[in-house]
Amino acid sequence: MENISDYIKRFGSFRFSEMGITEADNAVFSRLAYLDLTPFAGMTLSEAAEKYESGDDSNKILSETCDLLKEAGNTIRFGYITIEGCREIVSEDMQTAFYAVTFAADKKTFFIAFRGTDDKIVSFYEDAKLAYAFPVASQTSALSYVTGELQLRDGKFFLGGHSKGGNLAVFAFLFLRDEEKDRIIRVYNNDGPGFPREIADILFTRKNCEKIYNLMPEDSIIGRMLSDGGKTKIIKSSASGAAQHNIFTWEISGEGFKAAKRFSMFSEYMEDTLTQSLETLEPERMKDAANAVFEIAKNSGIKSLKDINIKNYRSLIPAAAEMKKLVDSDADDIPVIVRTLAKSMVDSMSVEKIVERSMPEVMSRIDELAEKIKSRNDENSES
Fold first, then answer.
1. When comparing pLDDT for 58 and 181, which is higher?
2. CA–CA separation, 150 vs 179, rounded Å?
3. Where are the beta strands (DSSP E) in the chain?
């Protein structure tokens, strides 16, 4: 099954003047937004690929995306793309984690990509807020970023993002002025959530929907949360269940993704369950439940998933116990989204997961110790 890496290899010799920005290009740009490209602003992707160091082999998303950068940077198509600018806002006080990057395919064609959920706990917190608050800080940051880029650069723009990043791309587009929207060619929402129904009914006019493209795998969960508008394409994935959310599992066909006929029964069930949960619960109750999860994490000193490691395991035991209470609770008023979020955090605190994430660091320390012992033995033998 071919994926976006295979797409890069197949079409890497085509310049954007020969083949414009495609559905698959959107996925590449949206995925690259997960990397911190700020230090490379002004450079080409080829230059960034040479200098970029992932630094965390235990993070599969970053590792895969770093490989993608190097693959793209070594082609004619992507190598000459310039990183025009980036903006990052991370604040526990504002309860937000935001990142956007502008890529220039040529002097008059730009792609603004928004990052989805990363490993920061505040990023998960903001995800939960999408269900009961409008707008959230990242959404207003996205609008501010796009309007600034439109003022700064002449030409046409594409907007896109994966997961929460897709939601940010759509939000920014919907709140632009009409003359600004005219400069947006297409908006890609790659399996990102929608908006509260009462908001969606107002915002998704026929004219607005013409430029919005929702790409979702057959087993989509995140992409079917809340309400959306625009054209929807259901796509094939080499994975199953929640793992289909990973863009690297989406199957390529030509310049885009391989289409599926319909959503799976699993996706339909999850959509019905989540919709019922979100529409029947009061926003204040959802807010309280989300706050409960993140207060537990905050009080345990957990700021990102990196903090859940073998060195901190003893201090995480109370947090895991509190999270498990939320997961196992029989209370009907704990939202499915919050219960699921708590479960994922409990799972990530398991001994097996912690050891798995810690192994690269442990092996590195063992290698360092072995080198020291070898050096000491060499010195003793010389003396």
1. 181
2. 11
3. 82-91, 96-106, 109-114, 156-162, 184-190, 212-217, 231-235, 252-253, 256-257
